[in-house]
Amino acid sequence: MSTTSLHRTLNAEEIERFGAEIDALRARTVADLGESDARYIRRIYKAVRYTEALGRVLLMAAFFLPEGWLFPAAALGAVILGMSKILDNMELGHNVIHGQYDWMGDAHLQGKHFEWDIAGTSDNWRKTHNFRHHTYTNVHGMDEDLGYGVLRLFPEQKWHPARLGQPIYAIIFALLFEWGVAIQDLRLGRWLSGRVSNKQMYRISHPALLKMRRQIIKDYVVFPLLAGPGFLTVLAGNAVANVIRSIWTYTVIFCGHFTTNVETFPKSVLKSETRAHWYLRQVRGSSNLTGGKLIDLWTGNLSHQIEHHLFPDVPANRYAAMAVEVKEICARYGQFYNTGSMVKQFSQVIWRILRHSFPSSPARVRRSAQPAA
């Protein structure tokens, strides 16, 4: 089924009414924020710290346990640490950096100052993600998250013979996703092509390099050294934990953005785009995951990617309730609400990666356009 048949074309009046209903839902939710939301994020903050401590203790202790216990203890420690990093990255860091909890006035949870346990700096993330991605979601030439400069995922993106290796690039990118995000704002292509001098590149990349160095020293030097003879066990466990986090984050993000029926848009949509048009673009360019509270928690509530794109600064623990109303609003206006299991959504992502490794012409695929006014 093409995206043409998924969404009913709305006239100008319908678009503005659609936007007004989304605005009203946001206003009701924000007015209702309070102690339960503050308690929730503080519990997440504690859970991150406690699980990190538990994972690291298990990794350090594994070498000293009786014979036969080393691998099980180290494996468990790596998994727990990986889960802690996922929670820190997705439900805590990502959402706090969006400013979702600024209203609390808690110095530890201020979006402009929060720093997370990841190779990339929060400052770079605020530029590439909070501003560019969320402002220009799925707009070609504006949203750098469309393939992250690594993958061709839509026919509008230029094909090159090097794209034939894309399935391999995708696997490497998943394993090293943390580092791909870390260098995204550096735009290394400009430096490699000579458009940016070595001196300029050093100035631009200096904060990011400092953060990368800090993460490398912490996970691959300090904590392994603290384990003494268990150095290699802790080193390997930390590496496994970081890879677990990268693969999971990659999977969740790609499921939310690159399934079969998500739409992309030409720059021309921005010329006369109202807030209501922007809302429609978010709905049409996003996809959700089913799975209930457990999947909501471990995806940082990005299982509700549609709601996150509509309300990026609203506490993510509210998305599940908001999703019920968003789905109803979409149904009333004939807009396809894209949701499915992780298996279903990620299989579509895999197909997109494979399909667009080969030449594909936009002429044979409907070019997404601004909703009609």
UniProtKB/TrEMBL annotation:
Coiled coil: none
One of the record's GO molecular function terms: oxidoreductase activity, acting on paired donors, with oxidation of a pair of donors resulting in the reduction of molecular oxygen to two molecules of water
Cellular component, GO annotation: membrane
InterPro entries in alphabetical order: FA_desaturase_dom (IPR005804), Fatty_acid_desaturase (IPR012171)
Keywords: Membrane, Transmembrane, Transmembrane helix
Keyword Protease on entry: no
UniProt key word Transmembrane helix: yes
Fatty acid desaturase domain mapped to chain residues: 73-339
PANTHER family for the chain: ACYL-COA DELTA-9-DESATURASE, DESB, FATTY ACID DESATURASE 2
Protein name (record): Acyl-CoA desaturase
